[in-house]
Design brief:
This protein has 75 residues and is an all-alpha fold. It is built from 3 helices and no strands. The longest helix is centred in the first third of the chain and has 22 residues. The N and C termini lie close together (8 Å).
Length: 75
């Protein structure tokens, strides 16, 4: 597996970790939550601004995971 595809797959796991952290409502000051937030928020933040919120649900991680999966197929 090429390096770029491996990095995209690794980033997918980071996005999934961000989802789990949000479900568990882990303190944002927790070291793991802080690292995951710093890695994902630069991409998820702009996606949240573009996507409408439906019934209070945030679909930006799902959209990002689909985009990462599509990018992985090219590499």
């Amino acid at each position: 597996m090429p390096l770029i595809a491996s990095l995209l797959e690794l980033y997918s796991f980071v996005v999934l970790a961000a989802v789990v952290i949000s479900w568990l409502q882990l303190d944002p000051k927790h070291p793991v939550a802080s690292i995951v937030y710093r890695l994902t928020e630069p991409i998820l933040g702009p996606l949240r601004q573009v996507l409408p919120s439906m019934a209070g649900l945030d679909f930006s991680p799902m959209v990002l995971l689909f985009l990462l999966q599509a990018l992985t197929r090219f590499f």
